[in-house]
């Protein structure tokens, strides 16, 4: 009986020591860099674990239980309190930027809306993009280069409608086929695409442009042939001064769905050139 009473008293003493150790570690945790919000949960874990270690079968050594409790405290302190997969890093992490802030930017809203429509209606959006690019190009040519007076609205209609009906739709088809047949962005792929675009597609584009303008001006096939002979070489060589570098960037970095937007952004200046040679 005396031996059992002694063991019982030792268990009570060990439990008291374990509780004191748990409270001590809980108090020292903020100083050691452990996040304060995790302290109550860690304290409960330590206490319950210590109680389980002490409340082992009657045949277990009380000193072994004490060593287990102390080892548990040392492990938790060294590991940053079992930091849930953060590698024991107890430093405060800076808060990331608020994703909702971009929603208030009107330019971001416009861009997101454009991307969504481009995904839902790619042909229509590329046609409208080319319509805008050719319209801006002709307006700049008339207002600031030629300083046309009065402003030629029919000429603007011819150029803008060409962008909508021909350039946007044909570019959607051509660059989609080109990216499908020659995928990738390596140097060899980019060079091949630039070569095809400038040597094969460029003259075809010029003939389509002169033919469309002649159609709206109610001029015959002879005009188209004459215009092709006199202006096509100028159009092609003028393109070679701009588009090889522009298309190298295009085929290397620009996503396929946004090629027409990129081309029209660059082409605003080139459209001024097209507007001039088509009306001289």
Outline:
elongated
Biggest beta sheet summary: none
Ends apart, CA distance between termini: 120 Å
Question: Topology as H/E string?
Answer: HHHHHHHHHH
Helix- and strand-based class? mainly alpha
Average pLDDT, rounded to a whole number, is 76
Question: Tally of extended strands?
Answer: 0
Helix content: over 70%
Radius of gyration: 38 Å
Stretches with pLDDT under 50, minimum 5 residues: 31-63, 80-98
Number of helix segments?
10
Proportion of strand residues: under 5%
How do the helices and strands line up, and which of them pair or pack?
Layout: H1 2-28, H2 39-54, H3 62-78, H4 106-120, H5 122-145, H6 153-181, H7 187-216, H8 221-240, H9 243-253, H10 259-278
Explain what this protein looks like in three dimensions.
- The model is unreliable at 31-63 and 80-98 (pLDDT under 50).
- With 280 residues, this protein is an all-alpha fold.
- Helices cover 75% and strands 0% of the residues.
- It has helices spanning 2-28, 39-54, 62-78, 106-120, 122-145, 153-181, 187-216, 221-240, 243-253, 259-278.
- It is elongated and about 120 Å long.
């Amino acid at each position: 009986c005396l031996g059992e009473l002694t063991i019982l008293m030792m268990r009570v003493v060990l439990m008291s020591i374990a509780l004191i150790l748990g409270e001590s570690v809980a108090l020292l945790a903020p100083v050691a860099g452990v996040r304060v919000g995790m302290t109550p949960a860690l304290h409960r874990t330590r206490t319950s674990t210590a109680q389980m270690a002490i409340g082992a079968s009657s045949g277990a050594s009380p000193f072994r239980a004490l060593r287990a409790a102390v080892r548990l405290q040392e492990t938790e302190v060294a590991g940053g309190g079992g930091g849930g997969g953060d590698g024991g890093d107890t430093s405060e992490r800076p808060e990331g930027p608020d994703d909702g802030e971009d929603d208030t930017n009107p330019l971001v809203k416009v861009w997101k809306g454009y991307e969504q429509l481009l995904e839902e209606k790619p042909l229509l959006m590329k046609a409208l993009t080319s319509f805008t690019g050719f319209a801006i190009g002709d307006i700049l040519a008339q207002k600031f280069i030629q300083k046309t007076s009065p402003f030629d609205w029919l000429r603007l209609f011819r150029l803008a409608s060409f962008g909508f009906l021909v350039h946007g739709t044909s570019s959607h088809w051509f660059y989609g086929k080109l990216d499908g047949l020659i995928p990738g962005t390596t140097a060899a792929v980019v060079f091949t695409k630039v070569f095809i675009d400038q040597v094969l597609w460029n003259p075809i584009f010029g003939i389509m442009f002169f033919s469309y303008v002649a159609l709206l001006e109610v001029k015959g096939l002879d005009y188209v042939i004459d215009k092709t002979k006199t202006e096509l070489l100028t159009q092609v060589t003028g393109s070679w001064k701009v588009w090889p570098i522009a298309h190298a960037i295009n085929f290397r970095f620009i996503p396929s769905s946004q090629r027409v937007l990129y081309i029209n952004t660059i082409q605003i200046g080139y459209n001024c050139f097209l507007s001039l040679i088509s009306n001289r």
